[in-house]
Write a structure and sequence with these properties.
The protein is α/β, with parallel strands linked by helices. It has a domain at 52-217: TIM Barrel. It has ten helices and seven strands. The protein has helices spanning 5-19, 37-44, 69-74, 85-90, 95-108, 120-124, 128-139, 169-185, 203-210, 227-235, and strands at 29-30, 49-52, 79-82, 111-116, 151-155, 195-197, 217-218. The protein has a seven-stranded parallel beta sheet with strand order 1-2-3-4-5-6-7. Helix 8 links the parallel strand 5 (151-155) and strand 6. It catalyses: D-glyceraldehyde 3-phosphate = dihydroxyacetone phosphate.
């Protein structure tokens, strides 16, 4: 929940102008608060994709304050972020709710960027992979064989979000490999699904993270509020990833 109309216009314009020179084939997606989506779409041009940070698990109706996947599509979005750790922690969003939202997102024709991740307590208890696997299986339980190509999974260890702590590249890779194995067991084309890492990604650690074989990109938080820092991270993605 950051920004203003002026920031949305200037930041996206700056990112667009710098991202136009990227030669690694990376797709750059901007996901602002919903109220700024029209401004971001207007500034994105054909260089950037646009998403929204959340949608409801309902198609329409008496749900004041909510927005639907079809509304996001109507405003020009291509992606929806769902199941972010802050939604899970602060708004009691369950795996079942995530699954319902994923269903709505995919039915609308949008792409679902589904967040999973463990807390520090769960990691220290040796339950990290078990917890994340359960979130993947439950959150993506309704995805059909034709829909997997529109699913992205973002691993965001809760203990590394906004804390300055980052999983080592090796730890992140191990979890991404585990997620890809779970997807394979679910019948998904696991090697074709993009897996993103989110957790205090910065320009100075992005290259090491993205060099790992199962880390296809990043879900960037605070560092995305400065165009130069954000585009520097985008440049760190190896070509062909």
């Amino acid at each position: 929940m950051n920004g203003s109309k002026d920031l949305a216009q200037t930041l996206v314009s700056d990112v667009r102008s710098q991202a136009a020179s990227l030669d690694n084939g990376v797709e750059v997606v901007i996901i602002p608060p919903a109220i700024y989506v029209p401004d971001v779409v207007a500034s994105a041009g054909d260089v950037l994709s646009v998403g929204v940070q959340n949608v409801a698990q309902w198609a329409s109706g008496a749900y004041t304050g909510e927005i639907s996947a079809d509304m996001a599509l109507d405003q020009g979005c291509q992606y929806v972020l769902v199941g972010h750790s802050e939604r899970r922690q602060l708004f009691a969003e369950t795996d079942a709710a995530v699954a319902e939202k994923v269903g709505r997102i995919l039915a609308s024709g949008l792409q679902a960027m589904v967040c999973v991740g463990e807390t520090l307590e769960e990691r220290e208890a040796g339950k990290a992979e078990t917890v994340v696997a359960a979130q993947v299986k439950a959150g993506l339980a309704t995805v059909t064989s034709e829909q997997w190509q529109r699913v992205v999974v973002a691993y965001e260890p809760v203990w590394a979000i906004g804390t300055g702590k980052t999983a080592t590249a090796q730890d992140a890779q191990a979890m991404h490999a585990s997620i890809r194995q779970v997807l394979s067991e679910m019948g998904a084309p696991a090697n074709e699904i993009s897996l993103l890492y989110g957790g205090s990604v910065k320009a100075d650690n992005a290259a090491a993270l993205f060099a790992e074989p199962d880390i296809d990109g990043g879900l960037i938080g605070g560092a995305s509020l400065k165009a130069e820092d954000f585009v520097s991270i985008c440049r760190s993605v190896p070509a062909g990833t």
